Every structure is written in C-alpha cells, then in structure tokens.
Amino acid sequence: MVALAKAVKQDVGSLLEKGHRKMDEKKVREAIELIRMEINTLEGIENCGRVIEARKKKHIALYNIAIEALEKQLPKKPRENKIRGGWLGKQKHYTCPTCGNCLLEEMMNERQNTSYCWDCGQRLDWSE
C-alpha cells in the first residue's frame, strides 16, 4: 500500500510542468483514475483490525481530497447568467460551475490574469 501511495504521489508530482505549473488534462485524468483504483483496493480490504481500519478510512478521505483538487485542474465552462450589469448594462455575468460563485469575465481576466475561480480555484475555460 505504501509503495502504491508513493507511486501515485510521484505520478501526481510529474504532472506539474516547469514554469507555469499548468497540468496536462490527460495526465490529470489518468492520476484521478489511479487514485480511484487505490480507493477501490482499500475499500475491498476487510477484517483488518481497528487500527488499520482507521488508517484505511483516513487514506480514503485523503485520496478523495486529492481527486477533488485534481478535478479542479480540468477546465470547465462558466455558466452565463441572464443578469446584465455595468454602466450600460452590457457586462455579462457568469457563474462558476463548481461553487456557484458569480464571476465577471472581464474581472477574471483583468484582475488575476488567470482562468481560475477566485473562490474555489476551479480552472475555467472562457473559449467560445
């Protein structure tokens, strides 16, 4: 189990590219699948005593947190709201697909120069 955990950690670590630290979507999906397989393996282990059972639950919880973080690296399109704002009512409002935070495309691009929700960290795809 420790060896597999180290391998998963090493795979996740190799996903980060130098410089921008942008993750390759294919590799992120592969890492998520590896972690899910590890969770399934752990869930299949039975009658292993209270101490090991507690550690197993802790590992499963940590793996689920890792999956949640990795899934936020996969870009999702923000949902456009029907609300209009700004001086002439032409500014479009968008909602993060993960947390529901109301975003403005212009604010996201100008303020942070990134494509991430500033509330939950979800990577956003602003392409048409």
What do you see in this structure?
- The protein is mainly alpha-helical and 128 residues long.
- It is built from four helices and three strands; from the N terminus they run αααβββα.
- The protein has helices at 2-15, 25-44, 50-71, 105-112; strands at 79-85, 91-95, 102-104.
- It has a three-stranded antiparallel beta sheet.
- A hairpin with a 6-residue loop joins strand 2 and strand 3 (102-104).
- Helix 1 packs antiparallel against helix 2 (25-44) and helix 2 (25-44) packs antiparallel against helix 3.
- The radius of gyration is 19 Å and the shape is elongated.
- Mean pLDDT is 77; it is low at 15-20.
Question: Roughly how many Å apart are the termini?
Answer: 44 Å
**Helix-strand string:** HHHEEEH
Low-confidence stretches are: 15-20
Give the % helix: 40-55%
Helical element count? 4
Biggest sheet overview: 3 strands, antiparallel
Q: How confident is the prediction overall: mean pLDDT?
A: 77
- Major sheet: arrangement of strands: 1-2-3
Which structural class best describes the helix and strand composition? mainly alpha
Rg for CA atoms: 19 Å
Could you tell me the strand content as a percent range?
A: 5-15%
Oligomer: single chain
What is the overall shape?
elongated
- Count of individual beta strands: 3
